[in-house]
Design a protein that fits this description.
single chain, 93 residues, mainly alpha, 3 helices, 85% helix
Length: 93
């Protein structure tokens, strides 16, 4: 429902911001909500379809990026272990 209703996610964020006392962020998210509604109505829903497609693509890319960051961290750790083993090997010679 959140992905299909124009402005719903921005409104959820606005409510959370207001509850947490972040009034400026709440006002900004309220403005974003109205903007999404206006763009959806003005473009007969094409804006919402494009936004949803972009969000789905972004979520997929975020997941891939997270996997790449984990792989990079593992590589970094393996390099540290290799350096440590090389140091031990030199000490044993």
């Amino acid at each position: 429902m959140r992905w299909l209703t124009p402005g719903q996610i921005a409104w959820d964020y606005a409510v959370t911001n207001f509850e947490n006392g972040n009034y400026w962020q709440g006002a900004a998210n309220t403005g974003i909500m109205f903007g999404e509604i206006v763009f959806s109505v003005a473009t007969a829903g094409e804006y919402q379809a494009a936004k949803s497609a972009t969000q789905c693509t972004t979520k997929g890319l975020s997941a891939e990026m997270e996997q790449l960051l984990k792989a990079a961290e593992q590589t970094k750790n393996l390099k540290k272990e290799l350096d440590h083993l090389k140091k031990i090997e030199r000490e044993l010679r």
